[in-house]
Amino acid sequence: MRGAKETTFRGERAVVLRWENLQATVLPEIGANLISFRDLIRGFTLLHEPGVNEMDDFRRTPYLYGIPVLFPLTVTMPARSPTPARTFNCL
């Protein structure tokens, strides 16, 4: 299966992305965190995911679970980022 679908993860709105055996789950309303990344065929869970009863802990300490999808441009490489209001140049 390939594609994206909107669903829920531990009661939160989520977007699940699939590409062959890989599945990624993003929580767009909670910091756009990539909260889950799995190899479905091998059964690997590649990120620390909050359990069913750990979502309150996730909200208090999100840096312990998953990984942010969007990094500041200056962290990844020199880039230029357009926004509706203005353009930021990061060198």
Describe what this molecule looks like in 3D:
With 91 residues, the chain is mainly beta. The chain has helices spanning 55-60, 73-76; strands at 2-9, 12-19, 22-27, 33-39, 44-45, 67-68, 79-82, 87-90. The strands form two sheets. Strands 1, 2, 3, 4, 5 and 6 form a six-stranded antiparallel sheet that branches. A two-stranded antiparallel ribbon has the order 7-8. The chain starts with a strand and ends with a strand. The mean pLDDT is 82.
Based on the structure, what is the oligomeric state of the protein chains?
single chain
Helix content bin: 10-25%
Strand-pairing-aware structural class: mainly beta
Low-confidence residue ranges: none
So how many helices? 2
* Strand segment tally: 8
User: Average pLDDT value?
Assistant: 82
* Backbone CA Rg: 15 Å
* Secondary-structure element order, N to C: EEEEEHEHEE
Query: How would you describe the shape?
Result: globular
Distance between the termini: 39 Å
